[in-house]
């Protein structure tokens, strides 16, 4: 009996000449397996990982099963920066990347000799879709004096047009260092994250006008009402959220920073403004604490207002088992494009490695005007 997988219509914004046009994409979310099928799929995956010399790399936003299984089998669940680093450094010849397309592409760019498989290669991201390379290149051409800084959530082609790559866990430090060395910045694609970085650093920045369909939906008024009901709760917000939501936060940061804040802050209750996939890790690591989802537009209808990324939801156990079994859905990136796209990724990885080792990471950023 064949299973019908529903196709969900997803709206996203496409910046056009300073305004935003609404576009449509789709997501195909696999049905939840029953308890027996779930256990069978998990044991099949465990066996196949060994047979294929493969390791799982999962994002915090994917299904809890894919997070737990990755950790249980020696893989990783983390943010996109750590996923990239782990995949590059792990000795396995095959990486199964559960996340969205740019994560698979980044893994391939960093590990061209490894086989990169994705449970569903059509899993995308509104930031990536909303920043097509031709329009983005034209935008860059209008600002030849600016250093091009792009977020990880972009295609390989957009990365190949960039000087620096950042994730939400290192954007502040990298933009700060660039500013200190006299760089004016062209930022893409997330406007909220870019604005947040500008407010924090005072850097001279121009922005691409993209947004994440999940974080863009958090609502400040509803959040402030929820805060009144939970006066002791700390509010943790991902910086892809709108500025009025960020303004209400006790801590702002990447998924890893949110996890750290939840662990370290002296509170029993937390309101979380990021994809609801994060709740699994937050609750597992902090059993005595309560985590409440920040309000979005409501439960009335769309993927845009449910605080869970429809493309992240495309990753499932059956997809992982299928790609391991058949080798389907392998990710390829044109080698010439990959070579150029690797440059900004390597810069970011070197910068963050220096930061982590307590070395002067700013020394890796060239001074503007230096010979
Ligand atoms: S949660 Fe937002 S930024 Fe992350 S993959 Fe989905 S659309 Fe992209």
UniProtKB/TrEMBL annotation:
Pathway: Cofactor biosynthesis; NAD(+) biosynthesis; quinolinate from iminoaspartate: step 1/1. Pfam families: NadA (PF02445). Its cofactor is [4Fe-4S] cluster. GO terms for molecular function: 4 iron, 4 sulfur cluster binding; metal ion binding; quinolinate synthetase A activity. The keyword Iron-sulfur applies. It catalyses: iminosuccinate + dihydroxyacetone phosphate = quinolinate + phosphate + 2 H2O + H(+). InterPro entries: NadA (IPR003473), NadA_sf (IPR036094). Keywords: 4Fe-4S, Cytoplasm, Iron, Iron-sulfur, Metal-binding, Pyridine nucleotide biosynthesis, Transferase. It is found in: Cytoplasm. Its EC number is 2.5.1.72. Catalyzes the condensation of iminoaspartate with dihydroxyacetone phosphate to form quinolinate. Its main location: cytoplasm. The keyword 4Fe-4S applies. One of its GO terms (biological process) is 'de novo' NAD+ biosynthetic process from L-aspartate. GO terms for cellular component: cytosol. This is Quinolinate synthase.
